[in-house]
Design goal:
Largest sheet: 7 strands, mixed
Shape: globular
Bound molecules: uridine-5'-diphosphate, manganese (II) ion
Radius of gyration: 19 Å
Helix content: 25-40%
Number of strands: 12
Distance between the termini: 61 Å
Length: about 240
């Protein structure tokens, strides 16, 4: 039977939030058999996102988890969306769906429908290229004989797996196998790599998707910050 795809999306309040979520919703409306876990970066669920979820005609789980403010700055850089993804993982671990794949979809990326077809066939961990990321046109697994042998990337050589959040999906069973199958907000390693390390993922486990990693099915687009004009506003009478 076709596995269900659990899509975890962190989101936070900003002028472009509804635009990003609406665009993502329109994509997901075209994907069968999914559960969309939306986790707001806030203490409580907002009315705005609650209505959005209600009107959506999608199978949505709406949660909230606020990003922790630090008393003292950490020597490691803080990653975004961590508490929210972890809240989503925790929800899944409680519900224990069995035949399922998990994908972490940030709210402002651009997703091809082909990506979800690829995700559907993941056995343990699927990997594929991501465009417009890491200071490159794309980062990608390098494959030989349908196996991943290396990674094409430039940014941060110390990464355990030099890959973006959008570049992999995992079988839900991996979350159940390891108690600490959560993201680390502060790590001297990278966010994605340290997570995959916790799941004991090895390079040999990678299942290359997107036509042996030769195609782009996801873009790490970033929505521009919009500054709303304050002060005098000219109203033109017509
Ligand atoms: N995010 C969040 N709280 C924040 C910043 C980001 O929940 O304070 C979410 C955001 O909505 C997105 C994900 O975390 O789904 C990654 O953030 P962003 O897209 O800003 O990261 P970037 O594109 O810079 O990697
Ligand atoms: Mn983003």
């Amino acid at each position: 039977e076709m596995p269900t795809i659990y899509i975890i999306t962190p989101t936070y309040l900003r002028e472009t939030q509804m635009a990003d979520l609406t665009r993502l919703r329109n994509t997901l409306l075209l994907v069968p058999k999914i559960v969309w876990i939306i986790v707001e970066d806030s203490l409580e669920k907002s009315d705005k996102i609650s209505s959005f979820a209600m009107e959506s005609n999608l199978n949505i789980v709406h949660l909230a988890e606020k990003t922790l403010k630090l008393e003292k700055p950490s020597k490691y850089s803080a990653h975004k969306g961590v508490e929210q993804r972890n809240r989503g993982i925790y929800w899944i671990k409680e519900k224990q769906p069995q035949n399922a794949i998990v994908y972490f979809a940030d709210d402002d990326n651009s997703y091809s429908l082909k990506l979800f077809e690829d995700i559907r066939s993941v056995k343990k961990i699927g990997v594929w290229p991501v465009a417009l990321v890491g200071g490159l046109k794309y980062e990608a697994p390098i494959c030989n004989n349908d196996k991943v042998v290396d990674w094409f990337y430039a940014y941060n050589q110390r990464r355990y797996v030099p890959t973006d959040m959008a570049s992999f999906a995992i079988n839900v069973q991996l979350l159940y196998q390891f108690d600490d199958s959560y993201f680390e907000r502060f790590t001297k390693s990278d966010l994605e790599g340290s997570f995959l390390k916790r799941l004991n993922i090895k390079v040999a486990d990678f299942e290359p998707k997107a036509e042996v990693c030769s195609k782009i099915h996801v873009w790490h687009t970033r929505t521009m910050l919009v500054k709303i004009r304050k002060g005098e506003i000219v109203e033109r009478k017509i």
